[in-house]
Amino acid sequence: MATNNDNKMSREEAGRKGGKATSRNHDKDFYQEIGQKGGVATSANHDKDFYQEIGQKGGEATSENHDKDFYQEIGQKGGETTSENHGKDFYQEIGKKGGETTSENHNREFYEEIGEKGGKARSENND
């Protein structure tokens, strides 16, 4: 046990012991409920920039710890879950939104370039 100079338990050790005791006494629903409450409280105290910053940091930390296979696996799981929960209308709607956003953000040269790339790929696959 970690102690400080007065032979008292350190704050870190006390937190660890408290966390273990709490986990023995509570189930998944408890943690979901307090997580929900914490999320509401956090969102009341922070703006969009805060969430962008922590998202950026989290993404960087994740990318440092995981490889291509990890991202393929979570992408596969996410895609399967999405397809189980949404129908054809959902995909049409998000496709339309994506197309509109892309057209707002890109010019004619962009479409010429991707059209050329698509044509090359198609011709290579037909050879």
TrEMBL record:
Compositional bias ranges of the Basic and acidic residues kind: 83-127
Segments of this protein annotated with the region Disordered: 1-127
Protein name: Glucose starvation-inducible protein B
Organism: Peribacillus cavernae
Lineage: Bacteria, Bacillati, Bacillota, Bacilli, Bacillales
